[in-house]
Design goal:
The protein is mainly β. The strands form two sheets. A six-stranded antiparallel beta barrel has the order 9-10-11-14-13-12. β12 and β13 form a beta hairpin. The longest helix has 12 residues.
Amino acid sequence: MKIIVLLATLSLSLAAPGLEKVDPEHPFPFHPTVGGRIVGGETTTIDRVPYTVGLLRNGALICGGVLIGPRTVLTAAHCVAPSVISNVALLNIRSGSSTHNNGGLRIAVTRMISHPLYRDCWWCEPDYDIAVLELASNAIATGLPASVISMYEQNADFNAGTYATVAGWGATTEGGAGSTQLRKVNVPVVGNAECARVYGSIISSRTICAGYPAGGRDACQGDSGGPFVINNRLAGVVSFGAGCARPGFPGVYASVPGYRQWIRENSGI
């Protein structure tokens, strides 16, 4: 699930048609939607993005995730927040499959470690949106199209216009149903200064923005926590955005370089 942000009137000149007006004292209300495709992308197969996993709650897809170790998944904190996952026993991942509802390996999650500064509340800004999951067993098996991905280090920076690949099983349209088949889309990085003109001070070294000025291609609900990959290395995970693929509103990703030390301390990787 990608957090769908209902923006307040940050600036009338920036407000897009159809955005809801909300209490100006709470500029980042959001409602995580459970369930869920990539908007404007294409179908793909897991062998092309073998580090991608589905997060399942009671067997149903709620988010994506990324294999950073054989028994370690990186995802978004809002995917495993107490309001979504009340008990770790409810949570599994599926690795090595192009579909989220069968094939590959289904593995229990034994521990969820969210960033301690992430706040699980309706009106909170979706900051520190990063989590590490420990698995009950190895998610990589002989003959299975699953593998880990290396991560960018703390000092990595990405120029505006650099293309990234996002993959997941989320909605193909804003508010739409999810996809059984894995999908991917390529989106260009948007500079943080430009992105902050839309989203404000939440855009920082902890975030990366990407999308097209005209919209049309983006991650969406159900893609949260999934991979944001540049040159075959993990640069971020899907976090939030104002709707899906709306003109003028890039998608926002939790930055791996921005959280690299925290990831290392909590995963050993």
